[in-house]
Design a protein that fits this description.
71 residues
């Protein structure tokens, strides 16, 4: 193995989390975003600690912001 696979401590919870991500996708559009290198590095670290892809973390943060604006 090349170190690309990682064990998770709670498989059932992890599966449930990713199933939720899939159900919440709706009509997703791809976008391109330019970020400061330092900001991207922080996002990558947070995503790794949260065990989610960085793109999913960014989408979640933006969704929360937009939902707050429309509330």
């Amino acid at each position: 193995e090349l170190g690309e696979w990682r064990s998770v401590s709670n498989v059932d919870q992890t599966i449930e989390r990713y199933q939720q991500y899939a159900q919440n996708q709706g009509d997703v559009k791809a976008v391109s975003v330019e970020l400061l290198a330092d900001d991207l590095e922080v996002l990558r670290k947070v995503a790794e600690q949260s065990d989610v892809p960085v793109s999913r973390l960014m989408a979640s943060v933006l969704h929360q912001y937009v939902a707050h604006l429309s509330a």
